[in-house]
Amino acid sequence: MAAQLFNRIGQVGLGMALVGGVVNSALYNVDGGHRAVIFDRFAGVKNLVVGEGTHFFIPWVQRPIIFDIRSRPRNVPTITGSKDLQNVNITLRILFRPVPDQLPRIYTILGIDYDERVLPSITSEVLKAVVAQFDAGELITQREIVSQKVSEGLTERAGQFGLILDDISITHLTFGKEFTQAVELKQVAQQDAEKARFLVEKAEQQKKAAIISAEGDAQAAVLLAKSFGNAGEGLVELRRIEAAEDIAYQLSKSRNVTYLPQGQNVLLNLPAQN
């Protein structure tokens, strides 16, 4: 009797374990920021998009495919040509995410790696169309306009594949080796031209200064000649007296010079010589 009871309990426990295993295998979780698409072996991809939470599915018959619908960054490098036939290397940083309601269509047409299939091709297409409208110099001076045109064109093309682009920015913009060397040579030439212009302006200023100085000397000579004509030798004597006064003033400040007035006796205390 006890043995039968234990057998019955064991069978019940085994049955519950089997049921629990089947139930667990028929559950799947959709985390926050994700959505699920159900693939049915008999009906194909269902149009229903499953939201966040825990859900049931039929094992072996159905299979959930999980998509991340949060914004993700991707850098897309492209080599294209400008209007003046210069090679341009551009890298775009794109924040993208799928439209949740279009996930069944995206999975059916593009697959789980839809970003690898779509973003490089449409980015290259739009960049080549936009960059071809500008010269190499305009790509630098009008970068904001270029970025706006690229953003508008890329957003429109991505919408055709069920993608939303939250942000598009040009992170890298360089030109070919020949254009870079030409720009450097142009900068050197401009610097040399500025230096030459400065030297010319300096020479002009020195010339003007020399002319003004010569005119001043000539005017001074005319004034002196006129003064000599009016005052005769008196002006020369005045200048001699002024010069003598200046010399006497300078000598009076020197410690090694002693002034002996004429007609006066001065006693000097000189050391005796042996």
Please give a quick description of this structure.
The chain is of the alpha+beta class and 274 residues long. The protein has helices at 2-25, 103-109, 114-131, 136-141, 143-159, 177-231, 233-252; strands at 27-30, 34-40, 44-50, 53-56, 62-68, 72-81, 87-98, 163-175.
Task: List the defining traits of the structure above.
single chain; 274 residues; alpha+beta; 3-stranded antiparallel β-sheet; 7 helices
Give your account of this protein's structure.
- It comes from Euphydryas editha (Edith's checkerspot).
- Belongs to the prohibitin family.
- Pfam families: Band_7.
- One of its GO terms (cellular component) is mitochondrial inner membrane.
- One of its GO terms (biological process) is mitochondrion organization.
- It is a single chain.
- With 274 residues, this protein is of the alpha+beta class.
- The protein contains 7 helices and 8 strands.
- It has helices at residues 2-25, 103-109, 114-131, 136-141, 143-159, 177-231, 233-252; strands at residues 27-30, 34-40, 44-50, 53-56, 62-68, 72-81, 87-98, 163-175.
- The strands form 3 sheets. Strands 3-2-5 form a 3-stranded antiparallel beta sheet, with helices on one face.
- Helix 3 packs across helix 5 (143-159).
- It is rod-shaped, with a radius of gyration of 49 Å.
- The model is unreliable at 14-21 (pLDDT under 50).
